[in-house]
Amino acid sequence: MNHHLHQIAQQLAANRVVPVFYHADEKVCLHVLEACYEGGLRVFEFTNRGEAALPNFRALRKKIQTDFTGMMLGAGTLYNNPTAHTFIQEGADFIVSPALVPEMQTLQTNHYTLWIPGCATVSELAHARALGVLLMKVFPGDLLGPAFVSAALSVMPGLRLMPTGGVSPTRENVQAWFRAGVACVGMGSQLVTQELVAKQDWKQLAQRVRDTLAITHELSRA
To answer: Containing domain of residue 32, as a range?
Structure first.
């Protein structure tokens, strides 16, 4: 396996939290990116959930290259290689799928781009491992829960898992996931709330990110 892929997976795990976001307004996207950076994050997943996804992704990549050196940008909610290739050409550091689509494994072998597929069963996790996946998205996290992670890791130790969907930035929730053994967590609207976006309260968003990361670091030292 390419060393670069291992490095990207390790950096995602080191961030502990992966923000998951989409908005049609480019300026809002840039403000959210900046707030996440100021809050201490060095990774950002922008999802392909609307017509503005690709142009806004380009704007985010340009902003990172100009002002946020060292921040990784991934593209999420991708189900096929052609669409994934488009985002890779625009500079995606990693690709996230809600489902396990085996043919997307070629993203790693042919393009040296980390692929993070969604898995909801132990069989899917085993299949992903056989495909050489380095980081697996546990989705939907709110339905599967930390108990699923604990059970899966008991029979397949060593997997890097990232639950997404329903993960909230509370001490109790974050603690439950990391005690179960996850490598990192994906957070969407629970972290970047609709209320903060509507108010355009970017300082409060940065503080929310900062507080969430503080919880994860406390847990890592415990």
So the answer is: 3-221
